[in-house]
Design the sequence.
């Protein structure tokens, strides 16, 4: 559907640009816009370029999002940055006070390692239910 | 219970809980509309897998929202939300469960009203955990070798059905007709009639309400409760205000609940009221997930939707426990059109149909069963010997009457034999009328049919036929219970019993 269409265009565009030198970028962007116009998908251009920005920044790397209840301490920050550099992660941080404490890691938006207090309390609650 | 004891139980539970941190596969909601969510991620999601949408709120006890995976596409997974979707936002985390959607089953559901997810709706608290199991809503139908032929009757207590369109345990018999014609009434009377069976032989009844008004279901439950039928019944409700996803899973959930009893060697009855709405619900979901549509905008697998559901009704072989699951699907037609898409689909799947006609209903023939168009493909194999003996002649008389019915306007100009046939047929048709909630056990039905086919009512005015029927039942119950006992125990109508019954009938007619 719509999301899939945007993703398909984004990934095709990223993969097309990756294989050409930087001086040819404007030419390829112009060609891409012609293709969008021909296929009647010009209205998706805004969304495609938004996704393109994220995908271009991430290319060749895996995304790592660190979720915590408060700002990470200095030593925690150092550990996380070292880890993400060693394993070629694109690091982002998010503060979610509702998790109460602990950390959660989301890798590439597909894997979650939940060590937050909220996560553990929810697991405990589920174990009481069944 | 001692406070310290409770504390120890909770402490042990907490210590025993697995709170270790593990990596798990997740996705994120990228769009939501009309109860369909698009999820990015979940690369290993399977179709029909149950997934959970994590609640956004702080509350630890807030339940995740379940959803069912329908489409697995290139970058996204489409799922239908099983419940309220108003609390779902873009970016919410979605977890896999690795399980197909399942429903709680067991003895603790008897007497309860639940939704298709097994959540109680009757205000009687949570289901008792003792003996509670979980069955997936989609289960394979028993294979050919696991079945045996349908032999035992499922008494409905309705004369026209038990006599002319008998239903056996393990059969699928469709009830089809226009709106407000008595389809649900037939189904409910069948449930109530099981009170006439002894508790060992009594089937567990599961009534699945799909898209029905809650007020109608509440009245139905009240009737069953007042008559003591809720003790062996379970009601599964996906109401009119529930999302189409619950309409879709309701019959499968009801079937799984009934299959628990079938697999334990017991008999079970499941009523799907109605499968027309079930088809509408599946059409709605399929169109929203952009599946290709076919005739009347139904998806291509609309036949498979009902065939895989109804194939789960079966009589199991002795090796598999000998249990049975009888299905009574209900289909609502529009203006009597039985040749429409969904009705013809389900007619071709089931082992017969009970066709209710508006004209008969308007003329006062209730139940408004069109005997000519109704059939039971199991037939007399599902009747007791007693009923077979009287029903054979009843069918013949009624068939002959139907042929001659058009001439009944010219009764004065007809020959004696034809006129008598018409009179006999009219009285037998009058005998087949029956009020709702007035089920009659098979032994009494046998005697009533015998009275009709043997000509005892030929001289009785049409408007007094009912009175004679009631009189016969009263006399048999009060003074000649031995006749009924004999028929009930032997399931046969011997010559000796016939002779005794003849004397009783002669006595009634003399008066």
Sequence:
């Amino acid at each position: 559907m719509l999301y899939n269409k945007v993703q398909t265009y984004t990934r095709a565009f990223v993969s097309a640009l990756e294989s050409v030198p930087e001086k040819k970028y404007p030419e390829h962007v112009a060609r891409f816009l012609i293709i969008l116009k021909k296929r009647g998908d010009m209205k998706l251009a805004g969304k495609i370029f938004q996704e393109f920005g994220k995908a271009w920044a991430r290319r060749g790397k895996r995304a790592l999002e660190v979720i915590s209840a408060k700002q990470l301490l200095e030593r925690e920050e150092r550990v996380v940055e070292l880890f993400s550099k060693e394993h070629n992660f694109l690091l982002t941080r998010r503060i979610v006070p509702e998790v109460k404490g602990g950390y959660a890691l989301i890798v590439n938006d597909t894997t979650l390692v939940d060590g937050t207090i909220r996560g553990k309390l929810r697991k405990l609650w589920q174990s009481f239910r069944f | 219970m001692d406070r310290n004891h409770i504390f120890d139980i909770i402490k042990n539970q907490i210590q025993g809980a697995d709170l270790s941190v593990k990596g798990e596969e997740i996705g994120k909601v990228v769009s939501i509309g009309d109860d369909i969510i698009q999820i990015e991620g979940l690369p290993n999601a399977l179709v029909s897998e149950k997934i959970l949408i994590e609640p956004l709120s702080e509350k630890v006890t807030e339940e995740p929202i379940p959803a069912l995976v329908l489409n697995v596409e290139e970058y996204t997974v489409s799922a239908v939300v099983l419940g309220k979707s108003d609390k779902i936002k873009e970016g919410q985390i979605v977890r896999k469960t690795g399980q197909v959607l399942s429903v709680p089953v067991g003895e603790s559901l008897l007497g309860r009203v639940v939704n298709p997810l097994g959540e109680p709706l009757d205000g009687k608290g949570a289901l008792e955990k003792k003996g509670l199991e979980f069955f997936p809503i989609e289960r394979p139908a028993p294979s050919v070798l696991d079945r045996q032929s349908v032999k035992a009757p499922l008494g409905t207590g309705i004369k026209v059905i038990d006599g002319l369109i008998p239903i056996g345990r393990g059969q699928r018999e469709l009830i089809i007709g226009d709106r407000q014609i008595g389809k649900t009434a037939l189904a409910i009377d069948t449930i109530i009639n099981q009170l006439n069976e002894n508790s060992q032989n009594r089937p567990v009844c599961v009534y699945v309400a799909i898209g029905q008004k809650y007020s109608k279901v509440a009245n139905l439950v009240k009737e069953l409760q007042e008559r003591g039928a809720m003790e062996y019944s379970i009601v599964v409700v996906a109401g009119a205000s529930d999302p189409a996803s619950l309409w879709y899973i309701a019959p499968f959930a009801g079937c799984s609940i009934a299959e628990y009893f079938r697999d334990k060697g017991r008999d079970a009855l499941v009523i799907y009221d109605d499968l027309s709405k079930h088809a509408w619900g599946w059409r709605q979901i399929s169109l929203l997930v952009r599946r290709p549509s076919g005739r009347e905008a139904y998806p291509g697998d609309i036949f498979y939707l009902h065939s895989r559901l109804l194939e789960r009704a079966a009589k199991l072989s002795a090796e598999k426990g000998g249990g049975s699951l009888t299905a009574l699907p209900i289909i609502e037609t529009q203006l009597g059109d039985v040749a429409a898409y969904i009705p013809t689909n389900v007619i071709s799947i089931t082992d017969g149909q009970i066709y209710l006609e508006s004209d008969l209903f308007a003329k006062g023939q209730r139940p408004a069963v069109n005997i000519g168009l109704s059939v039971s493909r199991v037939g007399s194999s599902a009747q007791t010997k007693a009923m077979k003996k009287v029903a054979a002649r009843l069918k013949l008389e009624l068939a002959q009457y139907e042929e001659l019915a058009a001439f009944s306007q010219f009764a004065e100009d007809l020959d004696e034999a034809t006129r008598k046939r018409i009179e006999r047929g009219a009285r037998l048709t009058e005998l087949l009328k029956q009020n709702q909630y007035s089920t009659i056990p098979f032994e009494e039905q046998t005697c009533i049919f015998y009275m009709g086919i043997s000509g005892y009512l030929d001289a009785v005015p049409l408007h007094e036929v009912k009175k004679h029927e009631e009189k016969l039942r009263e006399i048999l119950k009060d003074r000649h219970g031995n006749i009924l006992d004999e028929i009930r125990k032997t399931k046969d109508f011997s010559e000796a019993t016939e002779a005794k019954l003849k004397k009783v009938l002669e006595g009634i007619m003399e008066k």
Remarks:
- The radius of gyration of chain B is 27 Å.
- The CA atoms of residues 230 and 355 of chain B lie 27 Å apart.
- Chain B touches chain A at residues 13-14, 17-19, 21-28, 30-31, 38, 40-43, 57-58, 60-61, 73-76, 78, 93, 95, 290 (CB under 8 Å).
- The longest helix of chain B spans residues 244-263.
